[in-house]
Amino acid sequence: MAASRRGLSRALHSSPCPAWKRAQPGAKRRLKPEYDAVVIGAGHNGLVAAAYLQRLGVNTAVFERRHVIGGAAVTEEIIPGFRFSRASYLLSLLRPQIFTDLELKKHGLRLHPRNPYSFTPMLEEGTLSKAPRSLLLGTDMAENQKQISQFSQKDAQAFPRYEEFMRRLVLAIDPLLDAAPLDLAAFQHGSLLQRLRALSTLRPLLKAGRTLGAQLPQYYQVLTGPISKVLDHWFESEPLKATLATDAVIGAMTSPHTPGSGYVLLHHVMGSLEGMQGAWSYVQGGMGALSDAIASSATAHGASIFTEKTVAKVQVNGEGHVEGIILQDGQEVRSRVVLSCASPQVTFLELTPQEWLPEAFVKRISQLDTQSPVTKINVAVDRLPNFRAAPNVSRDQPQPHHQCSIHLNCEDTLVLHQAFEDAKGGLPSQRPMIELCIPSSLDPTLAPPGCHVVSLFTQYTPYTLAGGKIWDEQDKNNYADKVFDCIEAYAPGFKSSVLARDILTPPDLERIFGLPGGNIFHGAMSLDQLYFARPVPQYSGYRCPIQGLYLCGSGAHPGGGVMGASGRNAAHAVFRDLKSM
Questions:
Q1: What is the spatial distance between Cα 450 and Cα 452, in angstroms, rounded to a whole number?
Q2: How many alpha carbons lie under 13 Å from residue 261 in its C-beta half-sphere?
Q3: Strands (DSSP E) along 103-261, which ranges?
Q4: Residue 239 contacts residue 120 (beta carbons within 8 Å)
Q5: CA separation for the pair 481, 475 (Å, rounded)
Q6: How far apart are CA 73 and CA 564, in angstroms?
Q7: Is a pLDDT exceeding 70 seen at residue 99?
Q8: What's the rounded mean pLDDT across residues 230-235?
Q9: Sign of the C-alpha dihedral, residues 45, 373, 504, 483?
């Protein structure tokens, strides 16, 4: 085995030609001088926007700077024979309408639902006859209660009521994801028709209020309070509270004690896939297969997608209207509208001529909170992890807990809070929060026989280390070693199973995927950067101060996560505007 490890190359390997490329004949792949719409960036939201626009008869071209489409929803063979969902790694939030409208199953999307879905092993001493305890959660409520009762009978009884409480809140909030917030600029300064149209966007908000009814004050606390306070109201056992709290802080530079962390929890439990509420699935072939399916849907209707075509500038005419883009190689492409799937910072501070943007708007964009705690580590291993709390039956046979999100260093919310405090002081967490996933446990196509791909979504790591130090290779490897030491305590033998690893700190996530500050949501999902205020107040409806320029990425409403709503909503806004031009 040692020889094969030494022979592993770190070069990127290309996957077989995806369907979306095969759907573009050579003539269509040739760049035209003009399109109706241009999309900057082939992240999943940009692809969704292009697919909808093309179906509506808007001739659309997408320009992607990397060699591969998908943005953060990408599959890359960064280690020969091992295909990783290199950034995002699970699917749940994709809007059901998008799944249906774009016929993604027809275009090759295959999902592996996970049940059970959550596994939290304890770091405690076992005996020869009894392993350490663990908490395994799935779709069977009776089994969930049995698992929780190991830690608290009271919590086992409360859990179904908590789930119903959260289900009702999801029911209220869900429709808000599929419509633009109130257009304050149109409401204040538009024509009578524009004002009436703007008012109509309040309907989902009013409906949400009616759904919550008399319990609105309690739900308000969930959205605005710290998740630790919310969970303390419902439960007493720390393993359950800490496990649930991970969904409130994942991807966010927040502690369970941070006000507003409750909304991020809600954001991560409101998904639905193929009719299964709250389901989280692995995508067959990795997350890039989702992006390929969306792209295939777009190109099947005539959209054009170009990779390794970096957009250098948005062109604006003398009347302040978008007229196209300029590529890095100097080529100009004219269009009636431009949609940017890039972050608000890249879109408005780097690509857009500053003279056409109000100073106050530029200032707000430059002040957006994009802090990220995330370091993603992709690992190739030669065998399944063997957890002390759930020993393997055989070396090669995955067990139910192997398909889960495996939460390590998550036995107590205080451990999560201390990990956060470390990073606020400029230090990588001493006991980082680790979400370990093994997608090859359900999708063996991702790794050679007997081997597996392991995704480690870890936090908290600051963008810049204490004293202003920039991450170097030694810092990255020191942190990864610390993460592996933590895993070893739960699963002895893990370190010796490692063949190779790919370490992505916040600066790496920014450089490779264009995530500002390494933030997976394109900006904090805090209450001051949501709904009316995403990306900034007055411009939450996908439009911006320049006519014909739109934001369609995660920096727009309703925010991050692989849901596609920003792309779909922006496409509909663009189509309405094109009809009136």
A1: 7
A2: 24
A3: 111-113, 118-121, 134-137
A4: yes
A5: 10
A6: 11
A7: yes
A8: 95
A9: negative
